[in-house]
Amino acid sequence: xxxxxxxxxxxxxxxxxxxxxxxxxxxxxxxxxxxxxxxxxxxxxxxxxxxxxxxxxxxxxxxxxxxxxxxxxxxxxxxxxxxxxxxxxxxxxxxxxxxxxxxxxxxxxxxxxxxxxxxxxxxxxxxxxxxxxxxxxxxxxxxxxxxxxxxxxx
Length: 154
Fold this sequence. Notes:
Pfam families: DUF1203. InterPro entries: DUF1203. This is DUF1203 domain-containing protein. This protein has helices spanning about 10-15, 120-130; strands spanning about 5, 30, 50-60, 70-75, 95-100, 115, 135-140, 145-154. The chain is mostly beta strands. The longest helix is centred in the C-terminal third of the chain and has 9 residues, at about 120-130.
């Protein structure tokens, strides 16, 4: 099975850059990136140090429901190309991440969550997506739980 890393949709990134509301109905905060720990959820690379950056609340689910977590993410403030594809995104530079499977109903598939070393994300996600009950996988920060990107079957 082939997998692909999926960024947030380009139309959403453009709307947020134009001042559109985040998941809480607020305009994104505009700041400058400090250091190398600011992963853009659209290009799936780190926002360059000193570059404009947006901080906003994001809910990577189609509608609110008990399992639809909302949390902070970063975006490049300027237009950036959509990242993603079959290779590990450049922004995944922490030693490990939480991966978790979700069903077609956008709810957690219990027993699918695990903290895995970064170098094992692709194999672990492939194994999870081998389960027909799992529609997609989230990559989240192992320490803070922040959404990083989604993994889908290619």
